[in-house]
Each structure stands twice: as C-alpha cells, then as structure tokens.
Amino acid sequence: MFADPDAGRSVARYLGLTMEETGEPRPGAAAVHGTAPAPPALRQADGSVAMGALLGLADSVGGLCSGLAALPGWVVSTNLMLRAVGLDAVGPLALDADVLRVGRNAVVASVLITDAGARGKLLADGRLTSSILAPEGGPPPWDRPVRMAITPIDPGAAPPLPEFLGVRYEREDRVTMDVTDALRNPWGILHGAVTAALVDLAALHATGGSATTDVVMHFVSPARVGPVAATVTRIGSRPDGVLVRVELRDQGRDDRLVAFAVATVAP
After folding, report:
1. Residue 110 above 70 pLDDT?
2. 82 with 197: CB under 8 angstroms?
3. What is the DSSP string of 3-26?
4. What is the DSSP letter of 2?
5. Is residue 2 part of a domain?
6. What is the extent of the structural domain holding 108?
7. What is the total count of domains within the chain?
8. CATH number of the domain bearing residue 216
9. What letter would DSSP give residue 29?
C-alpha cells in the first residue's frame, strides 16, 4: 500500500514524525534525520517522554534508513535495542539514523535520539537490525533523497498513547489490544512502532515502575489478526531496576508469537 499516501500513515501522524534523507544518496548506504514533537500525549504522569514513544520513533526512522540502504529490496525489523540515557525532554525530539552494515540478508542501523529543545541533549541510543526482502511488485516508489512530511494530529487533541493504541489491562501481568486499520503499516500488518510501544506499556503495568529504561526486542512474525496479548514475566532485579521478559502473541492466529523482549524497568 506504499503507493497510497494515506495507507499505513496513522501511526506516523500520531507521533508527528517527519523524516528526510541526508547526504548524497548512493547504493548500499543511507542516513535519515527525523523530527517529532514531544506533546503531552507521549509523556508520562511525571512529564517525561514515554519509552514506548521513543521505541516507536526509533523503529520508524531506523526502518526507513535501512530500507533505503537495501534498495531494490526492502526491509522488516527483526531486532531493536534501545537504552535511555534520560527521558526528561523539552522537545522537539531529533532522531538520526545511519547504516552501520549492509549484508546480503540484513541491514544494521544506529539510531540516536536527542532533545533539540535542550541543545541536543542525548536521550537514547539504539541499534536496529532488519531483514532484507524482495517485495512483490518491487520496493516503495521513493524519489531520493526521500522526504516524508505528514500532517500530524493536533497535539492538543491527541489521546494518550495507551488510549490511541486501545490497550486493555486484563490482568496484573497481561495487556491486550486489537489490530485495527489505524495501527497497521503500509504492508497491512501491525506497525513495528506499535509493537514496540506495547512492550513498554506492558512492562510498566506489570511492575508498577516509573519508566522502562533498557529494551532488547526481537520481532518474530507479523501480527495480522489480533487481538495481540502482551504477557510479562519477572526475571529478576539489578541495581537499576526490575528485569522482565515481555512476550507478544497474535491471539487471532493460533496464539502465534509476534515478538519478545527483555526490558529493565526503573523503580
């Protein structure tokens, strides 16, 4: 659905994410700069930016960067690692993705998230690994250098992240959500940014912690039907917080494993 400018763009509009390719386009390489506001909808009760929002932004910017480097193929996210240095931000946020390695089957990209409103203070550092595919009908029809500018949702009218995702807190260790059209990407599957954000919300719900600070996430298979259930298991603790495993399953596809992650939640 890449040819349709409206298909699969609801999540980007909600995040307010604008992306543009930087530098001279060349085969096997890419760099992408993104900007996004940090409205109240993406903040926690204490005013800090939700880690779920940063995970979603990192997946989006890193994914575009990796896809451009993989042309004429395209990519799907397989592993996302993100560590927050600090979640207090003035905003807007700046995101910079650079390709670290392009192989025959995968792309590895770095993602840095900084606070443009606080002289570029570092907020989070991450890595995204993506698998290269040969999509039917060819890759998205990009004119390079790419610029993706969307009309964001009015920040004053945007619902909080859990409400936008339609998260249901079913049990102390589990949350669920439906796979609606608004939450799909142009491939027609659950947006990777949504999958990543659900990990954060589930981890916070199960632990009662203040913030998720460190996430290592593995995308296993796409969520197509839903509902998607995120179940949290406590692994242990360490000086900086509680260590949990979060497992996401597509209940409408025989409980197929969608993703799993190990996360640290600060007290």
Report:
1. yes
2. no
3. TSTTTT-HHHHHHT-EEEE-S--B
4. T
5. no
6. 10-134+169-266
7. 1
8. 3.10.129.10
9. B
